[in-house]
Amino acid sequence: MNEEKLLxxxxxxxxxxxxxxxxxxxxxxxxxxxxxxxxxxYNNIHQTLKMKIAPSVEDKNVQxxxxxxxxxxxxxxxxxxxxxxxxxxxxxxxxxSIAPYLKWMSIAAVLVIGLLIWAPWSxxxxxxxxxxxxxxVAERGADQPNSLEKAAAxxxxxxxxxxxxxxxxxxxxxxxxxxxxxxxxxxxxxxxKEAEARTVFLKLYNGESVFKYDAAYYTALxxxxxxNEKDARTWLEKIPEGTxxxxxxxxxxxxLK
Amino acid sequence: xxxxxxxxxxxIIGLVNNDAVIIxxxxxxxxxxxxxxxxxxxxxxxxxxxxxxxxxxDVYRQAKYKSLELTCPIxxxxxxxxxxxxxxxxxxxxxxxxxxxxxxxLHIGEDTxxxxxxxxxxxxxxxLFFRAFEKLGDRCREIIEWSMKGEAQEKVAESLGVTxxxxxxxKSECMASLIKLVQSYKTEE
Lengths: 257, 189
What we know:
The complex is a heterodimer. Chain A has helices at residues 2-13, 19-31, 33-53, 57-74, 85-88, 100-117, 125-128, 145-156, 160-173, 178-190, 194-206, 212-225, 229-236, 246-256.
């Protein structure tokens, strides 16, 4: 009985039925749960085998990509073989250029260090807990190096209105540049356009850049600047443990109580 | 059943799309760790490379053909898959592992285990199907292989020296016996 059914399912799925028989089977299939299960099992087996037996061109291309990367990541090891295993894990693989996010990470790191050196004097909480006092442009935008530098100079001189004037058109042109977006948004906060700033921060926060939690932090500060402690708090609480601004965010939360 | 898909699903998507930049990121995040763990456990560099590539290929296939959904971060997921693969490998070669199986993985979440288990199950299934396939007669294997490769039926019939009608009939029969074999294997287990 099962064998008979199996063969019918196979003939149906392999297109080995005349139209009339096929339509008849389709009707039968709709009412028969056991048949449906058999069809599902058949398809699963067919699909699974197909990926083993007959890899598609795309499958082969992925294989090629992996082989290339494998050579880069596994055979460069002669140089570091003598290190103990624990250290080997940490040896960066040569030949690979540093991904852009790493550069930004280092920018962020510089900013954090800058913050530690910068002694916050008594000021409003907004002033006191501000981060990103310095805009450093280690990585220049290839097409507009000078304007970005100029903006950074103005920014660092606390001429936020001047910096904003330069950053705004640049941001409009390349809103996907997260570094640009971040500093532009700060100049918005500094020049009293908190609400506009928050739309930019929100985009950053919803993205996955290194500015994600900086943006959350600054959103909180923008509320603080407007003396909206409740929303400030909500945003500070979004900053997870282990990120750069966590300690500061917690400290600020305690001040808000 | 709403699954909580992890944001690292983007790596899976990148892998499926053969996006070299994203795949490179996977290597950057995981390769060195896999390498040091496997070499620490009596494997060679080449073993590590093979295991790593195999693991990524498994993940790729599951993602592409079985819509794999990652509910854990990618790093522990890949590491766990590679570790299990290597432990299987050395069991075969009867080498003793240095690190006890999964004791050093206490810090990773349950989700990671569930994800890795799922992949393992799928792979085990795939192996079982293939075992059944290999049990088929030469003719059947040939016909199924041709048809899965998407060759035109007329051409296949011609090169096998049979009529088109016969080929169609035979193909259904072969597939039916394949399914039957799989079912009998499953009940054995």
